[in-house]
Amino acid sequence: MASQTEGNRTKPFRQRLVRLYYGRDTAAIRFQFMLMVIDIAIIGFFLAGPYLRDRPSYLIFDYMIAAWIALELIAQWSASWSTRRFLMRPMTWIDIFVLCTLLFPYWLYNFAFLRVARIWAVVQRPVFGLMLARLGLKERVDVFKAFVNLIVFLLLVSGFVYTFFFYREDPGTGFVDALYFTVATVTTTGFGDITLPGTFGKLTSIVTMIIGISLFVRLAQAIVRPNKVTFPCPKCGLRRHDVDAVHCKACGHVLNIPDDGAV
After folding, report:
1. Is the keyword Transmembrane in the record (predicted)?
2. What pTM does this model have?
């Protein structure tokens, strides 16, 4: 009986979290926008980490961000429909690993480059799509997401290369060299002035080229293909339609696609 009473007390709190994280009312949009701004500030701290880690204040900000990410993980778990669904989200495990690198910065700093994956979380928030719709860019959501995926990949690989191949160099010069190598490899330019030594370096280059080219092709496809909107057909489930479509191309069902004014 006591556990049932406690569950009834926490139910309104959970419902409020669900509305704030996934709702589209004014309060939810403001909450999601605040989270997005905080995420961008955290990403800025992560990118500046190699230049700030020797300062006394670095650990203070490090543990403050760790506390925030821990609270956000607890809130997202509370707002999730089930624990299994929460654990199936890739960003859950990325945030857990990022939290570990923040709690143990001296032992896990070599994996700090994974922190830039939180850039991917920014474009997954519902408010990101709403902001693009308000700017008249609703049909270009796929282009923005493809571009962000490519940028995240470039930064992740650059961080990986810097950590395992250029760590002994100056943070500024070493990261620029790692980024230069990554872009030259992904674009298959292959200048050859910077190469990674050994078998491990060759395998890193191969994986970088294969995944990088795939992301470039995906971005190019998103840019050149006709503008489409995502609106599942109630009858056949086809999700992609022309902006001004009245009938579904697959089954002919009448569609009622909301315009920008209805967002």
Report:
1. yes
2. 0.68
